[in-house]
Design goal:
Layout lengths: L40 E5 L22 E2 L2 E2 L4 E2 L9 E19 L10 E7 L7 H6 L3 E8 L5 E5 L5 E10 L3 E2 L1 E8 L10 E2 L8 E5 L23 E2 L9 E19 L10 E7 L7 H6 L3 E8 L5 E5 L7 E9 L3 E2 L1 E8 L1 H14 L2 H10 L4 H10 L9 H7 L5
Antiparallel strand pairs: 1-5, 2-3, 4-10, 5-8, 5-9, 5-11, 6-7, 6-9, 12-21, 13-15, 14-20, 15-18, 15-19, 15-21, 16-17, 16-19
Length: 408
């Protein structure tokens, strides 16, 4: 077993976060569940006369625009026409990763004379792939009440609801423009998607970057994005080391896992790939602070070895590695890589735990639809709906078995 010997290095102001805008709110460190590169999309809007609604979930910083088009000033954002009657405008976003929303950012960058003075946010949760008619008929819950907003800045709003949502609706009062809409939170995976061998580090299955030694050039959260990196900028890159230490990143897996192999991809990292890598695992029970996680004992599952630039590596994990909940990737001495994949299976108890967490987080209307769709005994459904949300309640085993595919 090894202990990390290299502490985290000071980070630049622009890189003092794992994901989201550089602000004081803790929730901006969580993934943006609405991000386009995670599958988020603006699926409906009542108006986008001046600027396309699709920009709300696009990656990267907002870009200033100076040109004018047929309909007026061009903006990198969503803008509606001026209202001449009472009302408000809205846009509905499908979350790329359904989950518990901890906070939202309504970014009005470069909207100075045309920003909305107030905003509100609602959420809903639906089975399958709803269309506009389904969304119009859905039950919506307010997660950000009507609140003041300012122009040309990132407006931050905490969310206290702990339900799992699939869609959110941003309403601007009465009209105007918004550059970006970020929905930060934690993924709550549908246990029906956890069957077979899957990437247990993927964000849509609950994988999460917990902490790292350095993120001077880019965020380590990029490592868990879906699909291949298109450029070096879509990976994780650290500053050059001038000491004897090394850089590292810690990733929480979807649950207690038995890994089969790990993909360590240095694609596009040609002159700045690390020279060597070591991948270690740990089994952590319960919540743990990042600082305590760094200092715990780690067991190597891929021993320190040479890696090549611009190369997708795949390392087999032997049966002696045991079951783990976290990975620590040490790169020597510094540099970066593009993607990390941890392929394996959750143990049966972890799948059951995921099923219970999913059911706990479902809002009443989604829970009702999910139970009904599982063809369970009507009496069992009625009993579950009656006790759902009560402190200390436990789901019947028959109900957990219906949503935990590895137990079948």
């Amino acid at each position: 077993m090894t202990r990390p010997e290299t502490p985290a290095r000071p980070r630049s102001r622009d890189a003092a976060r794992l994901d989201g805008p550089d602000m004081d709110a803790d929730f901006v460190r969580l993934p943006d569940l609405a991000a386009r590169r995670l599958g988020g999309a603006v699926v409906a809007a009542n108006d986008d006369f001046f600027a396309d609604r699709a920009a709300l979930v696009m990656p990267g910083p907002v870009q200033p625009r100076t040109e004018f088009g047929y309909r007026g000033k061009v903006y990198d954002g969503w803008e509606t026409r001026r209202r001449r009657e009472p009302g408000s405008d809205h846009a509905i976003v499908r979350l790329g990763i359904p989950g518990i929303v901890h906070g939202v950012v309504v970014d009005t960058s470069y909207f100075r004379g045309n920003y909305p003075p107030e905003v509100s946010v609602e959420a809903t949760a639906l089975e399958d792939y709803p269309g506009e008619k389904d969304l119009a008929e859905a039950e919506w819950e307010t997660i950000v009440p009507r609140s003041p907003a300012k122009g040309d800045r990132a407006n931050v709003y905490e969310v206290t609801s702990r339900h799992r949502w699939t869609h959110v609706r941003l309403t601007i009062h009465p009209d105007g423009g918004v550059a970006r809409f970020r929905v930060h939170g934690e993924a709550v995976v549908d246990p029906r998607l956890l069957h077979g061998t899957v990437d247990l580090a993927a964000q849509d299955r609950g994988g999460l970057v917990v902490t790292c030694s350095d993120m001077f050039y880019s965020s380590p959260a990029n490592l868990l994005l879906p699909g291949p990196a298109r450029t070096m900028g879509e990976g994780w890159e650290t500053a050059r080391r001038r000491d004897s230490g090394n850089d590292w990143v810690i990733v929480k897996l979807a649950g207690l896992s038995k890994l089969r192999d790990i993909e360590f991809d240095t694609t596009h990292f040609v002159g700045n790939a690390p020279g060597e890598v070591q991948i270690s695992g740990a089994r952590v029970e319960g919540a743990i602070a990042p600082e305590a996680l760094v200092s715990r004992l780690w067991t190597p599952i891929v021993h320190r070895r040479t890696v090549r630039p611009d190369t997708p590596h795949r390392f087999q994990v032997g049966p002696g590695a045991g079951t783990i909940t976290h990975l620590k990737i040490d790169i020597f001495p510094d540099g970066g890589f593009a993607r990390l994949r941890a392929n394996g299976e959750l143990v049966d108890s972890a799948v059951e735990k995921a099923a219970a967490a999913w059911l706990d987080a479902l809002p009443p209307m989604h829970l009702r639809d999910a139970l009904t769709g599982a063809n369970l005994d009507p009496a069992l459904i009625r009993g579950a709906l009656r006790v759902a949300g009560q402190p200390g309640m436990q789901w019947p085993q028959e109900l957990l078995d219906a949503f935990a595919p590895r137990r079948l």
